[in-house]
Design brief:
Blueprint (H helix, E strand, L loop, with lengths): L2 H9 L21 E17 L2 E21 L2 E15 L14 E6 L5 E5 L9 H8 L14 E12 L2 E19 L2 E20 L2 E17 L5 E16 L4 E15 L2
Length: 266
């Protein structure tokens, strides 16, 4: 596994003004319907290894169609279609994103966005798994009785699989409803979030056995209407990774900042 290919693979692993009158909402739940979203992600980082160090930048542009429907009393089914995906990289050839276009991902969440499960997308380049993992968690979680000034915290632990790496991940997130705003003519609540993330595990990437440890902090905000429409988000992730290539006992460290913007476009 070359330093250049490792740089690209690791970068893809981390695959969101107030109105005058305060807004509150009771019984907020994701509403059935179809919305298109545009997601822009830019990753800038530095990788260091015994072979040297270097900078890299990776950009991912996606357009998705998300259809929400009630699957059961306590479950919403999100059917997500990849309308377009484009990847650019300063670190060499990017994975072929065309295998994702037209594919469907089905994610099950609670009416307020708590993630239950997702059906994997078959027949794609394994290097794209971080993108599908991120999209499966597109819908943010919130509380149904949102009011300005409200705060709460959640801890989520579980396993994730990214490019053959089985990771145990724990995320501790604090939330605050900081106010309300208007987006494309719709009143929405602004929910700020701050998360601390730790993950560790092992596996095989590009036929190379390795282990990984990662620590990160994520800050941002998302916007949801009282009727349960997700209008978008902004997010900045500051991530430190350590990868050990077992056969060579070689450590690779990566520091990266990931900025993501999600916009409802229809």
């Amino acid at each position: 596994m070359s330093v250049r290919s490792a740089r690209l693979s690791m970068a893809l692993l981390i695959a969101a003004p107030f109105a005058a009158a305060p807004l509150s909402a009771q019984g907020v739940e994701y509403a059935a319907g179809t919305t298109k979203y545009r997601i822009s992600t830019t990753t800038k980082g530095t990788q260091s290894s015994p072979m040297g160090s270097g900078n890299f930048e990776v950009g991912v542009q996606q357009q998705l169609t998300v259809n929400l429907m009630k699957h059961a009393k306590d479950t919403v089914m999100a059917t997500i279609t990849f309308d377009s995906v484009a990847i650019s990289s300063s670190a060499g050839p990017a994975p072929d994103a065309s295998t994702l276009v037209g594919k469907h991902l089905v994610s099950l969440v609670s009416p307020t966005g708590k993630f239950y499960s997702a059906k994997p997308v078959d027949g794609i380049d394994p290097a794209l798994s971080s993108i599908t993992e991120g999209v499966s968690h597109l819908l943010p979680t919130y509380r149904s009785n949102l009011t300005t000034g409200m705060t709460w915290a959640d801890t989520v632990s579980g396993k994730v699989n990214q490019q053959g790496m089985a990771l145990d991940r724990t995320t501790v997130t604090t939330y605050k409803v900081s106010g309300d705003t208007t987006i494309s003519g719709q009143k929405a609540l602004r929910v700020e979030r701050n998360a601390n993330i730790k993950a560790a595990g092992s596996g095989t990437m590009q036929n190379t056995p390795m282990t990984m440890e990662t620590v990160g902090n994520s800050t941002g905000a998302f916007f949801v209407t009282p009727k349960g429409a997700f209008l978008g988000s902004t997010n900045t992730d500051d991530v430190n990774l350590k990868i050990t290539i077992l056969a060579q006992n070689t450590e690779i460290t990566i520091k990266q900042v990931v900025q993501t913007k999600t916009e409802a476009i229809k």
